[in-house]
Amino acid sequence: MLRYAVRRLLSLSLTLLVASLVIFVAIEIVPGDPAAYMLGMNAAPDTVAALRAELGLDVGPVQRYLNWLGGMLSGDFGTSYTYRTPVVDMIGDRLMISLPLALYALTLSTLIAFPAGIIAATRRGSAADVSVMGVTQLGVAIPNFWFAMLLVLVFAINLRWFSAGGFPGWDQGLLAGIKALTLPAIALALPQASILARVMRSSLLDTLDEDFIRTARAKGLSTRQTLWRHALRNALIPVLTIIGLQFSFLLAGAIIIENVFFLPGLGRLVFQSISQRDLIVVESVVMLLVFAVVVVTFLVDLAYAAVDPRLRRTN
Amino acid sequence: MRWLQHRNLWLGAMLAAVFVAAALISFLWTPFDVTKLNIPEKLQTPSMEHWFGTDHFGRDIFSMIMVGARTSIAVALVAVSIGIVAGVPLGLAAAARHDSPLDEIIMRSNDLVFAFPALLIAIMITAIFGPSAINAIIAIGIFNIPVFARLSRAAALGLWTREFILAARVAGKSASRISVEHILPNMLNLLIVQGTIQFSLGILAEAGLSYVGLGAQPPIPSWGRMLAESQTMITFAPHLALFPGFAIVFTVLGLNLFGDGLRDYFDPKISRGRH
């Protein structure tokens, strides 16, 4: 197990290193000098040069890449070209919204999908199964940002249960913050819950067909006992993978949903930075999200290998 | 009456065909000109004249949805083609040289691309070149490459152990010739099904990208941007937000049903296990 983990960790570090290189080179292609852009057209050349030095732009690309990489490893993401504040602080503030939003949505989608998938699988062919399959078929076809707009129309504008957007800040109390994130989390969770419920259903159906389930029934366990003790535990493996994969989609999806609700999260930050050509912020946010995706995939693989020893060998 | 057993296939095909037809017809005819502003008739609710109403510039929503279908379908279709054209040969090559450094390089590069969700690729491309429909195509296309590479590698690896491939090898055919002449034709079904799924995901992704302003730019109508523009008017003109949304949902639903139906059609064994 340890050898497997170390090998996967090495390959993860390599992926991240290459990803950082790709991101850096891609952003380097962008024409124009951020210092000149910040100071405007009438800036004196020596002022521009001074600012270039201050931003660390006066060294060669290789040195700049190493500085950026080294900085990130020590928690220094550089300074925003537009706001002149440390990028790490800006990202930290925004993460306080995007991360809870993604986790909230993940929790919701799991809470919806598990019972729905289990009911559909254990009552195959029943009205409940048909409805779950129908609703989930629709759920995967609905764009989450459009669903978010419909939620605003119904629950914020017509019923006035929630505010239509904005975020009060966590200092206004946990409840106010959670309330502001509820509609966005539901919008994010719906398509994910639909996918998860379908995976849960088919995985459980496959497991229920296995010989060991028949053995469990034959030795006298009730349907319920068989389900909880044997079937669910085995059916969970593919479901776990999907949950891991979903996390990256949730983070990316959160970027779009934040736009619908005017939430000051990572998404708003990245779009603002694109329009202001604050490339160091774009670079850092993209790197951070790639990091999150790669690490979550790694953790899922590890959990997988811990549950199922066969996977350690085949990989 | 075999086709009656494939209800999903036909229902999906018909739904998707409606939007493909709308896109094609829009090249020749639309009820109203979508580039012409008609401010006196702005924000009308659906009527006999304007079936889906008009937007804040007085443009006919029905006509805009027809033209918007072009953008969605074109972007998704080209993006799937990029995924197939680049991904399938990579997957075939990796399988033909299984466990070689080439296989390793291809698979690790796949992992690398997988670490970038389509939205992140789009964000980077937009940061560099600015927003456009072409950039949306590239972003979704790049995202599709590892999907097809992994699928074809897995399918090809299974086929390489089969006897008819062994026969071809004994006959002295090269690995690349076997891949093209024997492996590829035997995995076409899989590719078609996956292609349909990626096509519908592409429509969703294009809508999302144009919604946040990273896709098609004005004056090209696109469903995602129509939704973005409707957002500020949702309190007094909710119909602006409804119709483009329904267009996306029905297209994606149609393609998904079509894909499911195709899978059942190609492999009836699977459907018996699932339904």
Describe the 3D structure.
The complex is a heterodimer of chains A (315) and B (275). With 315 residues, chain A is an all-alpha fold. Chain A folds into two domains: 2-73, no CATH class; 88-314, MetI-like fold. Helices cover 79% and strands 0% of the residues of chain A. In chain A, α5 (87-122) runs antiparallel to α6, α7 crosses α8 and α10 (223-261) runs parallel beside α11. With 275 residues, chain B is mostly helical. Chain B has one domain (2-24, 58-273): MetI-like fold (Orthogonal Bundle), CATH 1.10.3720.10. The longest helix of chain B has 36 residues, at 61-96. Chain B is elongated, with a radius of gyration of 22 Å. At the A-B interface, α1, α6, α7, α8 and α10 of A face α4, α5, α9, α10 and α11 of B.
Strand and helix map with partners:
The complex is a heterodimer of chains A (315) and B (275).
Chain A: H1 2-29, H2 34-39, H3 45-55, H4 61-73, H5 87-122, H6 127-141, H7 144-158, H8 174-208, H9 211-218, H10 223-261, H11 266-275, H12 279-307, H13 310-314
Helix pairs in contact in A: 1-12, 5-6, 5-8, 5-10, 6-8, 7-8, 7-10, 8-10, 9-10, 10-11, 10-12, 11-12
Chain B: H1 2-5, H2 7-28, H3 61-96, H4 101-114, H5 118-129, H6 133-160, H7 163-170, H8 175-186, H9 188-211, H10 223-230, H11 239-266, H12 268-274
Helix pairs in contact in B: 2-3, 2-11, 3-4, 3-6, 3-9, 3-11, 4-6, 5-6, 6-9, 7-8, 9-10, 9-11, 10-11, 11-12
